[in-house]
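> forwarded from #structure-qc
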């Protein structure tokens, strides 16, 4: 079971408290978190992330671009509960500071901030970590409304775990078909050495989703995506083949949690997809049916 706590500079203060930890043990663990130099242990009023960590995600995007040719990468801030008034700026150790331009959905392009690498800058949002999630967004052009591409989501997952915005143990997250799972430990090196083999491996796999009672029963952690609207159902489409995922893939239902578990976003927006099932190619469409239609019905 994974728990989310405040993070600084891309490092998660505490990511792997297991189920069964008692209340006293939890408090002791929280109290043992090392204090960041120059900052007190009081609850943070800002969410801080190192530019260098997000740049690792960008490197993964470039290395595995074949999963989503022609796609773009942005990082996005998700305030929870959803609301207006999110701001982002950068600062460095020399007193430099500047605003980061956010789009209407609170996303930004890392390419526009390339000069921050030499400054060893931090990106700072004006909401505390318990009220804000960071995610990469990989999108190909020309897709219908409420539709994602499976290759985009696979690449989005890789970027997320490499830049550590998923707040999970990246060695356990199922971003790719099982045969290529080892690549996730060093995605850039793996892509350089075996890009052709990876492309072929994506088309392999005999797993049947119909027989999967629990997507986590194989011990691999499923990446939690955040939808733009509350999700009613998720359906995979490819070459006349169609399959609506069981509800266990929605709302983080397969997650184990204790009374102290904190969801990274309102649960009705969360969903997972079978990224590690090679029977579905990168071109498969992932159709998200929202709970409320465009007309409010």
């Amino acid at each position: 079971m994974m728990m989310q706590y405040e993070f600084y500079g891309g490092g998660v203060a505490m990511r792997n408290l297991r189920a069964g930890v008692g209340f006293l043990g939890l408090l002791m663990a929280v109290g043992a978190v090392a204090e960041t130099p120059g900052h007190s242990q009081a609850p943070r009023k800002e969410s801080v992330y190192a530019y260098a960590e997000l740049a690792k995600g960008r490197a993964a995007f470039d290395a595995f671009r074949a999963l989503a040719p022609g796609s773009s990468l942005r990082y996005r801030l998700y305030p929870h509960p959803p609301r207006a008034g999110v701001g982002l700026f950068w600062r460095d150790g020399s007193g430099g500071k500047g605003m980061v331009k956010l789009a209407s959905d609170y996303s930004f392009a890392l390419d526009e901030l390339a000069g921050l690498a030499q400054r060893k800058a931090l990106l700072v949002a004006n909401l505390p970590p318990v009220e804000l999630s960071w995610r990469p967004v990989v999108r190909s052009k020309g897709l219908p409304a409420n539709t994602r591409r499976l290759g985009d989501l696979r690449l989005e997952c890789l970027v997320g775990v490499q830049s550590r915005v998923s707040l999970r143990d990246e060695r356990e997250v199922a971003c790719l078909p099982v045969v290529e799972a080892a690549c996730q430990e060093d995605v850039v090196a793996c892509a350089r050495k075996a890009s052709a083999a990876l492309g072929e491996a994506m088309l392999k796999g005999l797993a049947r989703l119909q027989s999967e009672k629990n997507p986590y029963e194989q011990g691999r952690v499923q990446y939690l995506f955040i939808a733009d609207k509350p999700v009613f159902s998720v359906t995979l489409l490819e070459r006349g083949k169609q399959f609506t995922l069981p509800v266990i893939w929605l709302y983080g239902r397969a997650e184990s949690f204790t009374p102290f578990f904190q969801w990274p976003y309102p649960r009705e927006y969360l969903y997972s997809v079978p990224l590690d099932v090679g029977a579905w190619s990168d071109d498969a469409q992932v159709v998200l049916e929202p709970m409320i239609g465009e007309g409010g019905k």
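QC bot note: The chain has five helices and 15 strands. Residues 1-42, 189-213 have pLDDT under 50 and may be disordered.
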